[in-house]
C-alpha cells in the first residue's frame, strides 16, 4: 500500500510540474513552486526528485515511453501509410501536451547532460524508425521508388519541423494564419506529397477527409 502511495506521489509531482512548466516556462518554476502547488512540503518533493534535472529526466522518460507506441505499434487492419498518418497526428498533439519541453529543448539539452545524452539517443532511434516506416510505404506502393534516395533529407526536414514547430508558432503566427494553417502534420505531409504515387495520393486524400470529419 505504501509503495502505491509513493508511486502516486511521484506521478502527481510529474503531472503538476508539466502543468506549471507549460503555463510559466521551465526557468520560472522551482521545486518549491511545485511543492506549494501540490500542498506538500519541499522535503517531500525533494525525497522523490533531488533536483530539477532528476524531475525533467523522469518527465522525458515518460514522454519517450508515450511516443514509443506510435512508432512501434502496428495495427494489422491498417497499412504503413496509415501508420505514418497516425504517428504525425500523435506527434502534433504530443507537442502541445509537453509544450514547455518542445519550446525549451535547446536550453534543456545544454543545461542537463543526462537529458542531452538521452535526447540524442532517442533522436537516432526515431530517425531509424521513421525511415523504416517510409521504406515500408515505398514497398507498399504509396511512394515512388526514388523516394528512398531522398529519405535522409526528408527525415532531416521532418525533424526540423517537429523541433521548431511550436517556437515559430509562438513567435510568428497570428490568429488569422492559425485559422488557415494545416498544422504541423499538414506541413510534414506537404514535404511528402511530391513523392506519392497515385495510390498514395488517393489514400492521403481519404485520410485527410476522414480526419476533417472526426474533428
Automatic annotation (TrEMBL):
One Pfam family, short name: TetR_N
Gene3D superfamilies: Tetracycline Repressor, domain 2 (1.10.357.10)
DNA-binding region: 30-49
Domain HTH tetR-type positions: 7-67
Keywords: DNA-binding
PANTHER family, A to Z: ACREF/ENVCD OPERON REPRESSOR-RELATED, TRANSCRIPTIONAL REGULATORY PROTEIN
Protein name: TetR/AcrR family transcriptional regulator
Amino acid at each position: 500500500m505504501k509503495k502505491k502511495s509513493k508511486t502516486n506521489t511521484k506521478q502527481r509531482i510529474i503531472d503538476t510540474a508539466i502543468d506549471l512548466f507549460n503555463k510559466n516556462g521551465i526557468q520560472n518554476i522551482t521545486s518549491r513552486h511545485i511543492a506549494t502547488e501540490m500542498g506538500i512540503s519541499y522535503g517531500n518533493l525533494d525525497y522523490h526528485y533531488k533536483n530539477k534535472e532528476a524531475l525533467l529526466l523522469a518527465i522525458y522518460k515518460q514522454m519517450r515511453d508515450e511516443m514509443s507506441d506510435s512508432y512501434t505499434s502496428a495495427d494489422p487492419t491498417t497499412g504503413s501509410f496509415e501508420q505514418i498518418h497516425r504517428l504525425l497526428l500523435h506527434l502534433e498533439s504530443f507537442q502541445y501536451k509537453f509544450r514547455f519541453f518542445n519550446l525549451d529543448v535547446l536550453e534543456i539539452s545544454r543545461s542537463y547532460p543526462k537529458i542531452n545524452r538521452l535526447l540524442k539517443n532517442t533522436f537516432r532511434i526515431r530517425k531509424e524508425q521513421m525511415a523504416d516506416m517510409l521504406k515500408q510505404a515505398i514497398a507498399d506502393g504509396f511512394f515512388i521508388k526514388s523516394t528512398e534516395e531522398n529519405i535522409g533529407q526528408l527525415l532531416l526536414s521532418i525533424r526540423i519541423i517537429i523541433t521548431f514547430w511550436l517556437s515559430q508558432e509562438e513567435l510568428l503566427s497570428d490568429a488569422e494564419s492559425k485559422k488557415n494553417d494545416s498544422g504541423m502534420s499538414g506541413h510534414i505531409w506537404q514535404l511528402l506529397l511530391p513523392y506519392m504515387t497515385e495510390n498514395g495520393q488517393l489514400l492521403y486524400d481519404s485520410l485527410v477527409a476522414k480526419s476533417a470529419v472526426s474533428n
